Each structure stands twice: as structure tokens, then as C-alpha cells.
Amino acid sequence: MAYQAGGQRSAPRPVPESLEAQAYLQDYATLLAAVPFPSVVLDHGWDVVLTNTAFQSLFRGVGPHPTAMPGENFLRFVLFHPEASSVLGEHESRWCLPMLAHFAAALERNGHDPGLQSIRRDIAQDPIMEAAYRQGLPHWIRAVGERAVEHDGAVRPLLHPDPRWGATDCRVVDETPPMLRDMGCTRLTLVLRSARRPSPTVRRARKTGHLSVVPPPEA
């Protein structure tokens, strides 16, 4: 995958107007803090609303980026941060393409959303990322099936900076209660499994003429 810096930083996170909703989020943050696995609450555009300490620890080694930090917008992190593959194992096929599929569906539902439009413009500015979106994504979905794009229940590889976990897998669990859903938010928890395989060699993505998910042009 190619990684561009992206255009503008996401808009400030909206604060719920309702005092009841604000109080709910405050109490929900307390609940999230007690969860031992990385857990995050995202709004409809993948802006991060809440995280817990375990989520912050998972990404503690990630360097700074002007628009794609994991604690600010998780989709931008997956798509545009050059160090995303240092934490998200098998980054292109197991993380990036499923996220692109969810983004495409969100854009179809809410095409006029400014945050989604901003991400779409940044994808379009990178020829290889644009190829992933227009050509690689449909090809990949046909190859693996619709179920592969779902987050809930998916088992995906991680490279945890804590050596007690190391190279492991996590099961992504959607734990969104009705009140969060009514706010347009989603809660995802990454249930970590014990390290059980040698650490793979992490290769930084580089620009090539085509993606591995896009069939190379015929000679």
C-alpha cells in the first residue's frame, strides 16, 4: 500500500449536546478503563471518541503523523500512517482492505459527509491507494467473500510492542450498546490471544506499479 500524509486533520470531535449523553459517555469511559484488552469507541467517520489504556499501549511505539494517529482517526491510521504495518499484521489484506470496504459502504450511505469526503480526496490523491479502492477492493471481495470485510468476529494478526504478547492474533468484537449506536458510534474491542508464533519480518510498504490485490497488467 502507498501512504500519503493526507490533506487536512479531521474536524474536532463533536460533543453530544444532550447532558444525558455527555454523562453517559463519561460513565462509559470509566467502564472502558476497566477493560484489559484494547478497546475504542469510534464515530461514524472513524474519529476516536474514547479509548482505554490497553488501546493506547498497543500503539505506543507509533511515531507522530499530522493526520493519521490511531488515537484520532482509526481509518486514517490504517490507510495513511507509514508505521501501521508495524502493529497491524498482514496489514494490506487483513486490515486495510476490510477498512476500505467499510469506508466504501459508509460513503455510499453518507456521501455528503465532510469527513468522509476528506478521506476520499486523500485516497484519490495517491495513485496506488486509488487503485486499491477502485480495482483491488472489488477483486479482493470477489476472491474472499463478503464475510471477510466484517469486523465483528474477525481474527486478525497483531504485532504487540509488549513482548508478553508479541506477534499474536486478536478477535475483533463489536460491543456497541444501543445508546452508543443511537449516537452514531461503534465500540470495538480487540481480544488478544497469547503469543504463539515467531515474529514475522516487518517490511515497510513501498510504492510499486500495482498492489498485490490488483492483478498486474498483462504484457
Unreliable runs: 1-12, 199-210
What fraction strand? 5-15%
Query: Helix coverage percent of residues?
Result: 25-40%
**Biggest β-sheet, characterized?**
5 strands, antiparallel
Counting helices, strands and paired strands, the structural category is: alpha+beta
Average pLDDT rating:
84
The number of strands is 5
In angstroms, what separates the terminal alpha carbons?
23 Å
The string of secondary-structure elements, in order, is HEEHHHHHEEHE
Backbone shape: globular
Rg, Cα atoms, Å: 17 Å
Query: Looking across the biggest beta sheet, what order are the strands in?
Result: 2-1-5-4-3
Question: What is the number of helical segments per DSSP (H or I, 4+ residues)?
Answer: 7
Multimeric status of the protein: single chain
What layout of secondary structure does this protein have?
Elements: H1 19-33, E1 39-42, E2 48-51, H2 53-58, H3 74-80, H4 91-109, H5 114-125, H6 127-144, E3 155-159, E4 167-174, H7 178-182, E5 186-192
Antiparallel strand pairs: 1-2, 1-5, 3-4, 4-5
